[in-house]
Amino acid sequence: MSSVDWKDVVLWLLAWGGGLAICGAKLAYMLFGISSEPPDDPTALRAWVRKRKWLVISELAALPAFASIAVIIGKLRAWPLEGVVLFSMLLGALGFAFFLDALRTLVSRRLGLNQGQGGANG
């Protein structure tokens, strides 16, 4: 069993910080894009609070995965520190929903699930 290199831990923390910076900026933009005034209706207020809370949780919960993906790909490609951090920032900017959609597309192509479907790509 191999031990963890402290340089990899520092690299992961830097990638996480880069993703956090971009993700924080994106969240601020998105939250200020949503109506900043809470609605008067109690039911609408609960939905408004829940939407804002889960928007933040879903974006921030993906950051460790983005940092891990950036470090793994950066190590495989022998990228410098800046490349790993920038890749993590790119993943943070694209967001979790975009990441899941891209992952679904890659998996369905790999498994051949989208063959035989019409359309522009089929």
Walk me through this protein's architecture.
The protein has helices at residues 6-33, 42-61, 63-77, 81-94, 96-111. It is mainly α and 122 residues long. The protein has one domain (6-111). Residues 118-122 have low confidence and may be disordered.
**Percent of residues in β-strands:** under 5%
How many domains, in number, for the residues? 1
What structural class do you assign from the helix and strand content? mainly alpha
The helix/strand series, from N terminus to C terminus, equals: HHHHH
Overall pLDDT level: 82
Radius of gyration, whole Å: 19 Å
Shape: globular
Q: How is the main sheet built?
A: none
User: Which percent bin holds the helix content?
Assistant: over 70%
Short note summarizing the structure:
The chain crosses the membrane at residues 12-34, 54-73, 79-100. The chain has 122 residues and is mainly alpha-helical.
